[in-house]
Every structure is written in structure tokens, then in C-alpha cells.
Amino acid sequence: MGVGILVEDLNAWYGSNHTLQDINLHIPANHATALIGPSGCGKSTFVRCLNRMHETNPIARATGVVKMGDVDIYREASPVEIRRRVGMVFQRPNPFPTMSIYDNVVSGLKLNGFRNRRILDETVERSLKQAALWEEVKDDLKKKSGASLSGGQQQRMCIARALAVDPEVLLMDEPASALDPVSTSKIEDLIFQLKSQYTIVIVTHNMQQAARVAENTGFFLNGKLVEFDSTHKIFTNPRDKRTEDYITGRFG
Amino acid sequence: MSTQPLSNLPKPIDFQSKSMRRNSSRRTATNFVVSALAVIATLIVLLPLAAILFYLVYKGASSLNLAFFTHIPAPVGEEGGGMANAIVGSGMILLLASLMGIPIGIAAGIYLAEFGQGTFLANAVRFTADVLNGVPSIVMGISIYSLIVMQQKHFSAFAGGVALAIMMIPTVTRTTEEMLATVPHAIREAALGLGVPKWRTVLSVSLRTASPGIITGCMLAFARVAGETAPLLFTAFGNQFWSFKLNEPIAALPLQIYVYAISPYDEWHRLAWAGSLVLIVLIMVSVTLVRIFANRGVLKGGS
User: pLDDT, tens digit, for every residue of A124-165?
Assistant: First the structure.
């Protein structure tokens, strides 16, 4: 089951570039939360701070508190522990090109030394079914490379890979932006089904997508969280003028 | 927002106009000329290799027989004899060199690409590797002579292996670094995002993805030192008899070829040609075998 995320006074920098400024936010457990905003507003940096991927860039740094359940992830856990609890799906599908579909899906387990064949088999089937890819690939699991699938299939495989380690939180950084409409709608259906079991945070440029899948939506602009509320409220009656301008397409 | 009236747009290009058609035939001709130049350049590259192989077969094949692969060199004045001990000796020295040079070279390349970016140590290692790559092989032989042979007070297969290993390191290091640099960052992030520690990500993801290129680099380094004579002159020294000991002088194909080639006997000249042919064929066979085995089990990506 998912856990809630509490963010307090989060600031992040790339070199001297102050990309996130004083973010305060509570992301509820077992719901989907969408983050919208124009390019370069800090949405991606924000989700990368939630699993400490931000700090893998040598010039990046962050301050503030991020609590995942009861754990302060910057003070009470190592990045490796946190990333095992938080799955991440990236903008472009990034399968491991040398691995089969099977090995891609259980890579999180295998690379951490897990070798029990029966459990690996079960995990592959469960994760691929959750990611709605099982029927399409079940006959080629060990024959085909993960990179030989189509873009939409690769992305669903990457979602299966993230789910295979049984995370509590699933971060999705524009998971459908590189995909065609059919694949996009499959991914959206998936998010819809998964959000009862996982806390999902999805960055998107597509406002209809945010409206379709998320209960809550946050609007970022120039490194600040302008507004955070229920998706319905944000799209029908935003408090802030800038949010209204953005969702009505006056800029961005 | 104001939109431009359509009449202000530039006139669309007429691809059927006379000038465009002339342009098109000119580009077709250019395409043909450049393609032809590329084919010619390829042939020029292949020509020396083919010529050398042909000449070696022509000069050496007639002296090849079973005895060449099973007998040690015959004493002066006797007919026959072979290079069995030199083939085995070369194999031992090269195995030793690869066992020392490849792991060290790959480890250094991993450091350069994955851990040391921008550090003083990394720049120093990279510079040293480039300089080492330019050190003449005879200098390498003399250095190892004074560092190992003089200390041990005798020539040895081990000293030969060390000399060749040091010559392999720069090529292996630099190709490992460059091949790791071509692994997309997104793939590393995928592994890190799954909670895989960095060391494991490097070994199981980056290195594995880059492995075809790294193997090529190792094979280049191997093929390069397999034919080296100068570094072995003062280290492995050569041996007219069987030796399987690492701390004794040992025969090697390039050394044997050298000794026979500068001798005054026609029979020995023919053996030198045969030895050269065997050396090249053995290098080609071992490189091909490694490639076949290394590519097993690695699934090819579709895109």
C-alpha cells in the first residue's frame, strides 16, 4: 500500500540556478496527484527530489524536509533505501538494452541479489499483468530484448519494472509524452487502476490527462508551487489568476 | 495573436522547374561520385591486408607441416624442426599479459568514466595512458628489463607478460572509458531509480551495455601486443627448447621469427615465413573466437 508524502520548505538548486523555491505540499496516500506547469518550472526537479535522484547530478543540491510516511528521506534513510520504496517512470522509456523482457521486469530484484526463481516468475507475471502488457509479451519473455518492443510497450514494461519491486510510491515524469494516443490512453487506464494501491505522482504537460487521472493537482511556475488543490477545483475554479491563465491556455 | 495573410508567404518551390531538375541531376551525380570514392577508399584499406596475407601464404604455406606444430626448432645444420615451443610460449605470455592488463585497464577505464569525472587523478590517469600509448615498444622492453629482469637476475616469461600487459593497458583503459561514455544516462538512471547501488549499476548495467565495444578494445590491444617483438627481446628472451615455467626464459613466435629471419639459412627463412603466417592466423582465430563467445547470451536491442 502507498504512503503519503509531506514536503516542507523544499529548495533545490542546479549549480547557482535556484530551481525549486520553498515548496510545501502534502501528497495523500493511495491517490494520484498531477503536477502541471510550463517547461522548466521545476516539476521534474520536484519529483526527482522525492526519490533523491536529484542529487545524482554532481552540481545539484537540495534542502528542506521530505517525509515519506514517517521517514524523513533526507536524514533518516540512504538514497538506495528510498529508491527501493519509490518507483520511477521516466519521460522516455529506458529499458536495459542487453536484457530480455523478463530480466528487465525483475531487474530491480535481480540487481539487488534476489535469485529465487519461483518468486521471480510470479513477479514477472504479476507486474506485467498490472502494467497491461502480459498478453502481448508472455510468449517472448526470455527470447526478446526489452529494447525490441514498441515505444508504448517499452514504457509499460518500464512501469512493470517499477512495480516489480513493490514500491509504495510511483513517480511518473511525463510518462506518456513520447507515446502515441493509443499507448497514452493505455497508460492512463493503468494509472487509474494502480492508484488505489500506490501513491502516484505524475508530471504532465497534458492538462486533460491531469484532469482524467488525478484527484489532486499542483500548478508549478518558475520554481514555485502556485496552487495545490483538488483537480476539480484547479480546473473549474482556481484561486490564483496565474493558474487560471495557464489552464485556459493564455500562456505556457 | 495575429496571423499572417497567406499571400505574404514565399512562393512554394516548383520541383518540376528547369533549374530544380538540373539541380537534382547534379545531386545524383555528386551522390554517385562520393559513394564511389568511399568504395575505393575501402578497397585501398583492404588491399595491404590482402596483399600481406597472400604473400605470407605464398611464402610460408609450403613450409607448414605437422612437424611445425609439434617439434621444437632443429639445431643448425639439421633439416626440419618446428615452432611448437614458440606457439605455446606466445600463448602463455599473451594469456599472462591479458590476465594482468585487461582487468587493470578496464578498472581504470571504469574509474575514468563513472567515478573520477573532472578530478585531478582522472586527468592524470588519462594523460598517463595517452603517453604510455606512445611509448616505443623497445623502451618498454628496456624498462621491464631494468625493473624486473635485473632484479631477478634472469630473463623470464613473467617479465615478458608484464611488458605486454603494460602495453595493453592504455588501449583497454581508453576504449573502456569511451564505450562507457556512450551508454545513455537514462539507462543508469533506470537502475539507480530501482534502488540499485552505484557500484552494482556500473558493473551490471553500464559495463554490460558497453561490453561489445570494450571487448573490441581488448581484442585490439591483444592483437597489437601479440605481434610485438621488441618488448620480449629483453624480457622473455626466447628459448630453443620447451619451457612451461613462468620464471624461465621462454620462446615466443615473434622472437623466433626474428631470429630465423636474420639468420643466413634459407631453410630458416622459410620457417620464419611460416611462423609469420601462423602468428597472423592465430591472432585472427583468437579474436574471432572471443567475439563469438562474448556475443553469446547478449540479446540484441531492437532499436
Answer: 999 999 888 999 999 989 888 999 999 889 999 999 999 999
ipTM for the predicted complex: 0.89
In a domain, B184, yes or no: yes
Chain A residues in contact with B196 (beta carbon < 8 A): 80, 107-108, 111-112
**Residue A203 φ then ψ, to 5°:** -90, 135
User: Given CB atoms, is A42 within the 8 Å cutoff of chain B?
Assistant: no
Say yes or no to pLDDT of A22 above 80: yes
Instruction: Look up the CATH superfamily of A5-96+171-247.
Output: P-loop containing nucleotide triphosphate hydrolases (3.40.50.300)
Question: With an 8 Å Cβ cutoff, is B45 touching chain A?
Answer: no
CATH of the domain at B79: 1.10.3720.10
**Domain ranges, ordered by start, for chain A:** 5-96+171-247
Q: What is the pTM of this model?
A: 0.83
Kindly state whether residue B256 falls inside one of the protein's structural domains.
Answer: yes
Whether pLDDT at A116 is above 60: yes
Using an 8 Å CB-CB cutoff, list chain B residues near A99.
299
Q: Which domain holds residue B234?
A: 66-295
How many angstroms separate the CA atoms of A165 and B285, rounded? 44
